[in-house]
Design brief:
The structure is a single chain. The protein folds into three domains: about 140 residues, no CATH class; about 110 residues; about 50 residues, no CATH class. Strand 10 and strand 11 form a beta hairpin. It is mainly beta. It contains two helices and 22 strands. The strands form four sheets. Strands 1, 2, 3, 4, 5, 6, 7, 8, 9, 17 and 18 form an eleven-stranded mixed beta sheet that branches. Strands 12, 13, 14, 16 and 19 form a five-stranded antiparallel beta sheet that branches.
Amino acid sequence: MKHTIKILFFSALSLSSCISQFIPQTKEDKEFLVIEGLITDKTDANTIKLSISTLLGTTNRAVPVTGCTVSVADNLGSNVSFTEVSPGSYKPSSSFQGVIGRSYVLHITRYSESNALNYESVPMELKPVPLIDSVFYEKVTIDPGSNVSLAKDGCQIYLNTHDASNKCKFYRWEYDETWKFEIPYSVPNKICWVTDKSKTINIKSTTSLTEDKILRYPINYISNQTDRLSRTYSILVTQYSLNEDEYLYWEKLENIAEQVGGLYDMIPASVPSNIYCTSDPAEKVLGFFSVSATSSKRIFLKGNFRGQFNPYTADQCVADTIFAGDPLPANLGTSVWIIVSNFMPPYVVTTYSKGCYDCTVRGTNIPPDYWIENK
């Protein structure tokens, strides 16, 4: 079972109704700088994100840290400055990609009214990574159906990989998933694409295996509770090679995700970072500066998955049905959209939800460059 990342750096326990909130006694009584850094051998993935952790018992919301000076230096003397492209997110000021075999150090200066604090990572070597052998899927029957109910299908996506050199012992994966969806009414923006990033921790070690090979790793499960499988779906899986320290970092975050919801047996501040404050060694830092080569593989799915969720049913979209050309009923007000009914012409229907009228509320009507429709 995979666990969401969003809870990892923020310690908030919010209980509703008449249940009293319990806030355990921990040393986490202050805010910490959270650093999420990634350097790869690609030009588009290099990003440093800075935020402030929230306190126990407060709203679980990242607060971006702006106005910092950020740079990355390698062991050959090259130095690349980073520019803030959005609040708390920093990208290289010029074209930059990591080089396999070089070591990189992250430097950050954070300013306040009273002082400036300097942060630095330990040197991290950019390791090579093997290719992903395959990404594939298997249909999963959620409900076989009966005389009174329809069958329902899900989808489990797996990957296979191996390292013939037997050097890559620690792996991590991320994925981007994109799916095509269609509004079942005659509207101007009828077909769109939406993309989402993985929110789970996917790691695996081969140190206990006799061979550096991973087979049928379950990278993502798609239930029938979304419309991802209703038309065409694509997933791009990216593979990273980790050193043991970073693997232990992600493993501990995964353990926290398992524990959270209990009584905080482990707290986020207990996760070791590879970044420290040179101005004040007692200053705690959260997060990790990751450096790795990457390999990626994309697949397309267009199976006949049964019983998929439809967010555009009449119950969810239709406010009223009127004869084409008739004025709107007075009780509908003005915040409605007209959609042409495909199932009972010459009538049209009205909806209060713009998303039932315009697919760009959820996605984009421009297909991605990599989209292959005949897949």
